[in-house]
Design goal:
Methyltransferase domain-containing protein; S-adenosylmethionine-dependent methyltransferase activity; 278 residues; globular; 7-stranded mixed β-sheet; 11 helices; single chain; SAM-dependent_MTases_sf; alpha/beta; Methyltransf_11; Rossmann fold; methyltransferase; binds S-adenosylmethionine
Length: 278
């Protein structure tokens, strides 16, 4: 009993930390300015239709939920960080979309079994620390014959490499937590979902980001807007030589990827995976 209580307390503390992390910086600008196409790509790939009940897990500001609602579907945008819903509501209003916003942990979704026709997550569920728990929840709330659609950064792509670059500087992950970009590995996701899905279709695609004057400018922008990067810098704030080293490492990463001519242009690889609930 005490062990169970300890585990519940530890999980609550971890989720509170994650919630605070995603509230840092300016995630809404990342979704709005850098990766808005991902939501539309996911909604199209999952074939969301008018009248369907759709859940967007780890929806953030509604990158997928808003285009899903614009099809005429009945959409719930769920996220651990309700602070993001203010920007999400503004985004939805600007698009003329109507949907519901609800706080929820991807590892313990507050919905009955089989309550949605389509369950989506756009670079979202990958950040829940316990992959099997989260995958079990995606499968549980999707009705038999419904669809699951996921976009996840790949381990080999830019964002996966960025997380590997930050790892030596970040606080150690809690026991049992798995690295987010593993969700970008098709075999990993197939294993997580197992025989609860059929018709798995997976492909790697690219979203191109740009507009920075240099790799250094990308880094300076990124360390001011992206919660996980801000949290990593906070972890080493007392060690200026480590801050300088991370500055160098991130700029070097962006420098290696930069294919721009005069401005910095970066291709970010993701896995787009759709499946049918058995
Ligand atoms: C990179 S953002 C993606 C947001 C949005 N889907 C998009 O495409 O812009 C990751 C999101 O995962 C959410 N998140 C992290 N851990 C979560 C968890 N355990 N349960 C639900 N949401 C979580 C964060 O609050 C954040 O909104």
């Amino acid at each position: 009993m005490t062990d169970t209580m300890d585990a519940i307390t530890a999980d609550r503390a971890l989720k509170a930390k994650h919630r605070a992390m995603w509230g840092l910086g300016d995630y809404p600008s990342v979704a709005r300015d850098l990766i808005p196409e991902l939501g539309r790509v996911l909604v199209a790939a999952a074939g969301v239709r008018r009248g369907e009940r759709v859940l967007d897990v780890a929806a953030g500001t509604g990158n997928a939920a808003v285009p899903a609602a614009l099809t005429g579907a009945e959409v719930v945008a769920s996220d651990l960080t309700p602070e993001l819903f203010t920007a999400g509501r503004e985004f939805a209003a600007s698009q003329g979309a109507q949907l519901t916003w609800e706080e929820g942990d991807a590892e313990a979704l507050p919905y009955p079994d089989a309550s949605f026709d389509v369950v989506l997550s756009c670079v979202g569920v990958m950040f829940a620390p316990h992959h099997q728990k989260a995958a079990d929840e995606l499968a549980r709330v999707c009705r038999p014959g419904g669809r699951i659609g996921l976009i996840s950064w790949t381990p080999e792509g830019f964002v996966g490499e960025m997380f590997r670059t930050m790892k030596p500087y970040a606080p150690p992950p809690p026991p049992g937590a798995q690295p987010p970009p593993l969700w970008g590995d098709e075999q990993h996701v197939r294993q997580l979902l197992g025989d609860r899905v059929t018709d798995v279709v997976a492909r790697r695609q690219i979203v191109t980001t740009g507009g920075w004057t240099s790799p250094d400018a990308w880094r300076d922008h990124w360390k001011s807007v992206y919660g996980p990067t801000i949290a990593t810098y906070r972890n080493i704030a007392g060690a200026p030589e480590r801050v300088a080293a991370l500055d160098r490492d991130l700029a070097a990463l962006a420098g290696r990827y930069d294919r721009g001519n005069g401005t910095t242009v970066l291709d970010w690889e993701y896995l787009l995976l759709t499946a049918r609930r058995a």
